[in-house]
Recover the amino acids of this structure.
């Protein structure tokens, strides 16, 4: 009886891992796609509405569908609005570190997102727009790579999970 | 001091928060690089001490560092200097609460025009105060049954023209005893009357008031004429030929105007050709002169253009009002 329960647990565990990994990839992909959309919104907020970053972040929070993106912009907005910190760069960096800790972004993405934050709000509108265009290019590359990775590996991960689970069960039996 | 203190760099904020004004009127805070912080309270000059108190002793005054100015400007612009490009070109920005921040530094010139200001070396924060009821006495002259007279409010600088104009707008819009409120439209080219921040009026300018913020006067008056069908148009600091043309358009449409003008007296107005022309055409029915003889916003005299007489009912009287 104990052996059967063990086999079920091993099989279930291996299958779950097989489905978790593509799920994680999908979650990262959804985040990056939504984040890119938010950056487009930010571009329009700066270019057409000429809104401040504080107002823009609130507008992005209200329009975004992704929970991670919503939380990211809401937290920055609240801190800036409450004047808790005089440094936008710090607030932005903390937000990016939080996303990295939640494994939503990788080291490369963390690096260019932080670099974007360094020149956010600095100098004129032209500079802001160029900075945003550069970020969109980097996000495009990340999304492309992640998409390929997802399409290539998602089925493999889930099948491998089931197969490894079955194999262990057979060996145990 | 709490709300305005939040806009200062951390080292200044801490001291500003400690400041106690005991109900006195804070008027200006001046930050200049490597110079003491100067604060004007009730028309008196003080220094901000390193202990966060006001003092007359310059030796204990806190010195402003360039970083304080940069951080303060960053906070005041909500980390978005790009969104204040046009205002900075004109030398000031308006922040939440309607406070006006004058900015000086090194001007960057392109094609004989100021492109921007860099190396910001000084800020002059002028604290906005709405004086509710300060136009009570002036309204006596402006109201004409259920309408108003076309009025020009005249005074030298710092005599409270804009403050009076704001309260005039509020009272005409809200109405008062035996006077039903009218639809008022304000062209607020320099965001001084309604002090809009992110499009929202920071001052009470009345329930029936529409504000066109940051729009040049001439173009703004014509937009309001077409778009908002106002009963009264209010505009600050007229003077140019085009301003006079736009006012004529408004008057031809049967809409009333209340304007303000920088001038000392009637003689001074005669030197301003386009406004003098308007007066000769009897475009304005009343001209209200303000001074600061008994404090800012003293009602000096009222010229009735139609009869060509001075109306001295309230001559030399304090305007009053509540903060």
């Amino acid at each position: 009886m104990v052996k059967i329960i063990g086999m079920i647990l091993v099989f279930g565990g291996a299958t779950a891992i097989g489905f978790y990994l593509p799920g994680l990839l999908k979650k990262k992909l959804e985040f990056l796609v939504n984040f890119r959309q938010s950056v487009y919104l930010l571009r329009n907020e700066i270019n057409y509405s000429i809104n401040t970053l504080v107002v823009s972040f609130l507008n992005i929070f209200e329009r975004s569908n992704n929970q991670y993106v919503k939380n990211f912009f809401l937290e920055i907005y609240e801190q800036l609005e409450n004047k808790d910190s005089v440094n936008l760069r710090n607030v932005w960096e903390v937000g990016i570190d939080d996303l990295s800790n939640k494994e939503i972004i990788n080291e490369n993405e963390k690096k260019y997102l932080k670099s974007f934050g360094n020149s956010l709000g600095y100098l004129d509108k032209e500079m802001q727009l160029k900075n945003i265009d550069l970020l969109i290019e980097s996000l495009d590359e990340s999304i492309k790579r992640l998409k390929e990775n997802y399409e290539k590996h998602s089925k493999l991960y889930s099948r491998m999970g089931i197969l490894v689970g079955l194999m262990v069960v057979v060996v145990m039996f | 001091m709490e709300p305005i203190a939040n806009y200062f760099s951390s080292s200044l904020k801490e001291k500003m928060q400690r400041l106690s004004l005991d109900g006195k009127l804070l008027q200006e805070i001046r930050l200049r690089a490597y110079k003491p912080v100067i604060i004007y309270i009730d028309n008196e000059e003080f220094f901000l001490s390193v202990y966060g108190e006001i003092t007359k002793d310059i030796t204990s005054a806190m010195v402003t560092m360039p970083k304080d100015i940069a951080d303060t400007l960053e906070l005041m612009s909500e980390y978005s200097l790009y969104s204040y490009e046009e205002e900075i070109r004109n030398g000031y920005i308006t922040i939440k609460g309607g406070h006006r921040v004058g900015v000086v530094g090194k001007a960057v010139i392109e094609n004989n025009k100021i492109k921007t200001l860099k190396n910001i070396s000084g800020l002059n924060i002028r604290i906005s105060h709405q004086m509710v009821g300060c136009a009570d006495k002036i309204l006596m002259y402006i109201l004409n049954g259920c309408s108003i007279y076309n009025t020009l409010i005249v005074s030298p600088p710092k005599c409270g023209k804009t403050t009076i104009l704001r309260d005039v707008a509020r009272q005409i819009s809200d109405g008062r005893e035996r006077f039903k409120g009218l639809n008022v439209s304000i062209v607020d080219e320099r965001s001084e009357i309604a002090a809009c921040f992110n499009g929202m009026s920071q001052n009470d300018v009345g329930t029936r008031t529409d504000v066109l913020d940051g729009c040049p006067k001439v173009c703004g008056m014509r937009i309001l004429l077409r778009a908002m069908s106002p009963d009264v148009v209010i505009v600050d600091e007229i003077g140019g030929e085009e301003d006079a043309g736009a006012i004529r358009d408004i008057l031809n449409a049967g809409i009333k105007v209340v304007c303000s003008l920088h001038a000392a007296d009637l003689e001074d107005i005669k030197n301003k050709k386009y406004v003098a022309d308007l007066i000769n055409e009897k475009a304005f029915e009343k001209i209200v002169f303000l001074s600061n003889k008994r404090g800012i916003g003293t009602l000096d005299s009222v010229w009735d253009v139609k009869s060509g007489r001075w109306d001295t009912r309230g001559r030399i009287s304090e305007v009053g009002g509540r903060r």
In short: The CA atoms of residues 300 and 316 of chain B lie 4 Å apart. DSSP finds ten helices and 17 strands in chain B. Chain B has a mean pLDDT of 87.
